[in-house]
Structure formats: C-alpha cells, structure tokens
Write a structure and sequence with these properties.
181 residues, alpha+beta, Nucleotide Exchange Factor Grpe, Chain A, domain 2, 3 domains, 3-stranded antiparallel beta sheet, 3-stranded mixed beta sheet, 6 strands, elongated
Length: 181
Amino acid sequence: MEDDEQKPAEEAPEASETEVLRSENTELRDRLLRALADAENTRRRAERDKADASQYAITRFARDMLSIADNFGRALAACPPALREAADPQVKAVIDGVEATERQLLATLEQYGVKQIDTSDGKFDPHWHQAIAEVPGEGRPAGAIVNVVQTGYRIGERLLRPAMVTVAKAEDGANGIDTKA
C-alpha cells in the first residue's frame, strides 16, 4: 500500500514540473516572436527612414535653387516678346541663353524629384497654394485661382514651397475661402 501512495505523490511533482516547463516554453516562444516582430519593425522603419533621407536630402539645396529659377523667370518676363523680336541678334542670343539655362535648371530639379505644383485646374488647395489676395473673379467661382504670382514646388509628396496665388472673391463680398488653412 505504501507503494501505491507514493506513486501518485511522485507523479504530481513531475506533472507540475511539466506544466511549469510548458508554461516557460510558451512564455519564451511569445517573447521570441515579439522580439522577431520588433526587429522586423525596426528594419522596416530604418528602410523607410533611409528612403526618406535619400529622397528629401536635397530639400534645403533645392529650396535655395528655387530663388535662382525665380530670377531667371523674372529676367525673361522683363523682356516682352515684342521687344525680343525687335532686339539686336546679340541680345536675342543672350535671351535664348537665359531661357536655355532656366529650362536646364528646372529639368535638373525635376530629375531630383522637385516638381512644379500644378495650378492649371484653377482649384485652390490650401495644402499646395497660399492665397495672398482676393481679387475680382472675372467669371470664376469664389475661391478659384485667378493668377499665380509665384510658382510653387514640391519634392516627392512634400511641399517645398507653396504656390503664391490670387483667388477670386465672392461676388457678394463674402469671403469665399479660408486663406489661413
């Protein structure tokens, strides 16, 4: 009888030890899976940060180059087409050179992901445009873009510089858009 009484007592510690080991195994497996997931998330974040850094690394340089592009545009706008046609061949050559340089600068910026913000649809978007004034709409709906004062640019999907625009004001004098957005 003593042997029968001791057998269950001996099996009980083995059973509890097995349960402890299973529980520990489950806990370690859970910790391992969490550590692997954390490592994968860190790897993905590092890849995303690396891609962002390479895409947006030239942001400051590109912003500085935009003032040069603006100056080329201003120089060309200062000489209207009629004056260009009547100009001396040497002056025409200089103007052609300025135009070519401006085209090359803009093409190079675009090569590095810097693109002009499209305003051709005439719709004001506070994410890409900055309204600097409300002017008579000339038949356009309130809040529509009337004139682009300064071209805007983006790099990738980020705003580099907003397009400075004038927008049509409402006919009744009420404010047509939120220009502070």
